[in-house]
Specification:
With 440 residues, this protein is of the alpha/beta class. It folds into 2 domains: 282 residues, Aspartate Aminotransferase, domain 2 (3-Layer(aba) Sandwich); 102 residues, Aspartate Aminotransferase, domain 1 (Alpha-Beta Complex). 39% of the residues lie in helices and 14% in strands. The strands form 4 sheets. It has a 7-stranded mixed sheet with strand order 3-11-10-9-8-4-5, with helices on both faces. Strands 12-13-15-14 form a 4-stranded antiparallel sheet, with helices on one face. Strands 1-2 form a two-stranded antiparallel sheet. A hairpin with a 2-residue loop joins β6 and β7. α4 runs parallel beside α10 and α5 crosses α9. The radius of gyration is 24 Å and the shape is globular. Its cofactor is pyridoxal 5'-phosphate. It is an enzyme of class 2 (transferase). InterPro entries: Aminotransferase_I/II_large (IPR004839), Class-I_PLP-dep_aminotransf (IPR050859), PyrdxlP-dep_Trfase (IPR015424), PyrdxlP-dep_Trfase_major (IPR015421).
């Protein structure tokens, strides 16, 4: 595949950092190497000497003085080797990507560590999206994605979705505006990028079926665009087997996948990773070299030690416990919603993630209801409009997160919110159809 045609001018102009190359070369060299090349500070001057981190139900993670010196020093921009190796094995075992055995030129699977998946997304967008480009995405979508894309000056095209994710028929209808033969022509307006959250989407909680992914992938092949598979809730799927991913279908090396440990290990550690074609991951790493340089060595070593201590089986056992917690929270949310909201709202049970997407009946927009009336009663949800491409468009939805609150708090919020909503209609004119529906 000719990846050069997908790159923005800024990304295409990036060159490797000579100092970063020397840093990685030094770290791969034997201890006997004497180097006067690097500008790294002397770790003997650092105030931190060692650390012991207690792990639930397991051995403590111990960083002795030599390891601590490494943890507090610069490291390579791809990520520390032992963590990258573990992650590559994980991706191969979970997704069996066809690209794992490809040559570099054909788009061999490559990975890099990022400071949370958000950094990875921002760098992918900067690499692929020019001002004026047409970008496909399922909206409503994650507000952080909109915040990253909109300043790039691209044209965001909303592909309709439902509780099963992006609707291929709508995508096909949109793409029929263009001739597939024009996709590789210079200056063509055929979309070159599709973005989607395939599991437990934020904010809708929607999860795309395998059949829909296959249809979307075939359209990507026909119109020759790349798929950005942003999957931070992959490990929070409530049913097994877990859904096949775009990465597992990627025979053409056209999928860039972002994963995150934020929901399953720690959000504050800021560990994410990108998996995709080597030529594109290399471009992301060039950006990392010029910006953050690398994800925190300390947090990478801490996570790497934990994963190696656990092994694949221990990691998946931990994931099972996390899933069970969120499944219970989800069930509590659904039970409470059925008790308090069934006459005034509608929703679909999420099959992954941590959000319930609630549509209120008889109301065009939830912004004032949430930001004024609900706040007055000390309850807070997210008005759905913030997840639209145009946040000022009226939206009858609210997003309710069930990750942090206790079952009692979830029930209290939904009871209070229902009272607020119903009281809103009591002050409507007596002949209001919605007042009649709700009161009766």
């Amino acid at each position: 595949m000719n990846y050069a045609r997908f790159l923005t001018a800024v990304s295409a102009a990036r060159k490797p950092s000579p100092i970063r190359i020397l840093t990685e070369l030094q770290q791969r060299s034997p201890p006997s190497l004497i180097s006067l090349a690097g500008g790294a500070p002397n770790p003997n001057t650092f105030p931190f000497q060692s650390a012991s981190i207690k792990v639930k139900g397991g051995e403590a993670l111990v960083m002795d003085e030599p390891l601590m010196k490494r943890a507090l020093q610069y490291s390579g921009s791809y990520g520390i080797p032992e963590l990258l190796s573990w992650m590559k094995d994980l991706q191969k075992s979970l997704h069996n990507p066809p690209t794992a055995g490809y040559s570099s030129e054909r788009g061999q699977m490559e990975m890099c560590v990022t400071t949370g998946s958000q950094e990875g997304l921002c760098k992918i967008f900067e690499m692929l999206v020019n001002s004026g480009d047409n970008v496909l995405l399922d909206a409503p979508t994650y507000s952080g994605t909109l915040a990253a894309l909109q300043p790039l000056g691209c044209n965001l095209i909303n592909v309709a979705s439902d509780q099963h994710g992006m609707i291929p028929a709508d995508l096909r209808k949109i793409l029929e505006r263009w001739d597939p033969a024009d996709a590789q022509k210079p200056g063509s307006s055929v979309p070159r990028v599709l973005y989607t959250i395939p599991n437990g989407g934020n904010p809708t909680g929607a999860s795309m079926t395998c059949e829909r992914k296959q249809e979307v992938y075939e359209l990507a092949r026909k119109y020759d665009f790349l798929i950005i598979e942003d999957d931070p809730y992959y490990f929070l799927q409530f049913q097994k087997p877990w859904a096949p991913t775009f990465l597992s279908m990627d025979v053409d090396s056209r999928v860039l996948r972002t994963d995150s440990f934020s929901k399953i290990l720690s959000s504050g550690l800021r560990i994410g990773f990108i998996t995709g074609p080597k030529p594109l991951v290399e471009r992301v790493v060039l950006h990392i070299q010029a910006s953050t340089m690398h994800t925190s060595t300390f947090t990478q070593l801490m996570v790497s030690q934990l994963l190696h201590n656990w092994g694949p089986g221990g990691f998946l056992k931990h994931i099972d416990g996390v899933i069970e917690f969120y499944r219970s929270q989800r069930n509590t949310m659904l039970s409470s919603a059925d008790k308090w909201l069934k006459d005034v709202a509608e929703w679909h049970p999420p099959m992954a993630g941590m959000f319930l997407w609630i549509k209120l009946k008889g109301i065009k927009d939830t912004q004032q209801l949430i930001m004024e009336r609900a706040l007055e009663k000390e309850v807070l949800l997210v008005p759905g409009g913030v997840f639209n491409i145009n946040s000022s468009d009226p939206c009858p939805y609210v997003r309710a997160a069930f990750s942090l609150s206790t079952p009692q708090q979830i029930d209290e919020v939904q009871h209070t919110f229902t009272d607020i909503f119903i009281n809103l209609f009591y002050i409507m004119p007596a002949n209001s159809i919605y007042r009649c529906i709700l009161i009766n």
